[in-house]
Amino acid sequence: MSDVSWPTGVEPVVPIPGYPNTWTHTPQRPAIARAPGRTELAAPPGIARKLGVGTVNLAERVPGKPAIGQLIEISGRILDEDGRPIAGAVVELWQANAAGRYAHPIDQALAPLDPNFEGHGRILTDADGRYAFFTVKPGAYAVPVQETWWRPPHLHFSVFGPSCLSRLVTQMYFPGDPLNALDRILCSIPDAAAQQRMIARMAPPAAVGDRYLGFSHDIVLRGRNATPEG
Amino acid sequence: MFPTSQQTIGPFFPRGFIADADNDLTRVTAKAKPTKRGETILLRGTVTQQGGKPCVNAILECWQADAAGRFAAVDAEADPDFIGWGRTFTDVTGAYEFRTVLPGGFTDGTGTRAPHANLTVLGSGLMRRVLTTVFFADAAGDPVLGSVPAGLRPLLLAREDGKDGKLRVFRFDIRLRGEGETPFFDL
Ligand SMILES: [Fe+2]
Q: Which of A9, A216, B32, B181 lies at a C-alpha separation of 20 to 30 Å from B128?
């Protein structure tokens, strides 16, 4: 099915040299093509209801007690492949704190936790497909593998679009960081332009104000924003 | 426009994103009353990597029709207390569990579909999500099962595994790579 395949160079090439988990987790057999039926085309209309949405400010969970780090606003639009905004998409963001540590039991890094920063939020896009979070710029962290490398500061995004095809889990990077070019995960995307599209842009202070440093980042989901047929 | 590339979900998908009833498809939310339609079942299994080692904090998303084979998005008669979607994570042994209803079969443009649930797996080391389908009974004739090489089809059948209390338990293990590798689909 040509309409479900990804454009050349956009998908990560796996397994990734130097990232041993990809050698043990990536299926050996190619994915099997199947005709898209009702289960594949429809998507649950109630995900936002089930999960609950509304956390926008990760940086200041308790008013007056901001997290440590560079306060940032990250905003942008969720679009379909025709560039049309996707309203009502569930957008999840999670990240390390400014020291590069996740508030997660699995993360045993030396870097300190910040009691004022938990680092995850979930919202719905508005009628223009727009989302925005206030947070802090995450720190870099080393991946605990034998030949380690440093993950550049990045945000994790999970997005639910209007169909199963448009479900996306991705990461966003910051412009100008020297670790970007060394990151085995970002660099697994073969097409240079596709890599660039994963890097946010600076947003002008005029649009954001003087409390938060602004970044903007659009995410394009697969599929056309059409109601799935029955 | 080009779609944004996939990246791994990583090892640290927040526990705070997973609420009590997220793996319970029989309730829309933790506070909602469970659906009255259909047979409630438990779908259990493990997610393992090469060599049978468990995948810890892998994220699974389950998506299925209601007990009568209907989807709310396309059928006004669908069960109003059932959205057909849930999410969970694997524990340190790689184990997961969904509480759901036995899905109904239906007919769509691809043919007559046997009772099934679609599962998405995301995890550390998985740069792209993987998608599979679990069937709950004899699914001969199902067009999706039919697209799988005959020798691999048994890998997509849930195995009935006794009862937990009054609920029937179905087991479905997902092996990402290597011996007994689960068949995965392109969408
Ligand atoms: Fe990360």
A: A216
Please give the mean pLDDT across all residues of chain A.
93
Q: Which two tokens stand for residue B108?
A: 């769509």
B142: which residues sit within 8 A by CB, 6+ positions away? B111, B112, B113, B114, B116, B135
Give the pTM.
0.96
Average pLDDT, chain B: 96
The answer to whether the beta carbons of residues B85 and B29 sit under 8 Å apart is: no
In Å, how far are B56, B70, B76, B82, B104 from B34, measured between CA atoms? 29, 17, 19, 8, 17
B31 and chain A in contact, CB less than 8 A: no
Indicate the fold that domain A54-220 takes in CATH: Protocatechuate 3,4-Dioxygenase, subunit A (2.60.130)
For the domain spanning B15-175, the CATH number is 2.60.130.10
* Contact state of B127 with A219 under an 8 Å Cβ cutoff: no
Domain range list for chain A: 54-220
Residue B21 reports pLDDT greater than 90: yes
Higher-pLDDT residue of A111, A62? A111
Cα(B89) to ligand 1 centroid in Å equals 17
A 10 A CB-CB count for A205 gives: 11
Contact B110/A164, CB-based, under 8 Å?
Answer: no
